[in-house]
Amino acid sequence: QVQLVESGGGLVQPGGSLRLSCVASGSINMINTMGWYRQAPGKQRELVAGITRGGDTNYVDSVKGRFTISRDNAKNTVYLQMNSLKPEDTAVYYCNGNVRRWWYDSFNVYWGQGTQVTVSS
Predict the structure, then answer these.
(1) For 54-93, what is each residue's pLDDT tens digit?
(2) Strand partners, 58
(3) How confident is the model at residue 20, as a pLDDT?
(4) Per residue in 9-19, pLDDT tens?
(5) What's the rounded Cα separation, in Å, for the pair 110 and 80?
């Protein structure tokens, strides 16, 4: 089985920073693309940032210049550094990974359980 576990969420004031981490564990041969999504109450889940195994990144326009996604392939970990946080960034943040469990297997997407980020004064 494969598990993704997020950490680092919490309550922060506007303008503050948080760093989210997501560790993948279990039977893993390779992780291709990894990403961070978020879902605010009453809204659809949206892609915040994605990163390929080689380090290419993409961001939703609303976080460009404020958030940075990175990964450590040796540790099967993806990070999201969030700076200049705004109240509209408040959401549950989920990580996912496109994982191949065995060398002969296909890639499948796995999700973490989510971590709450609240930006409020």
Answers:
(1) 999 999 999 999 999 999 999 999 999 999 999 999 999 9
(2) 50
(3) 98
(4) 999 999 999 99
(5) 17
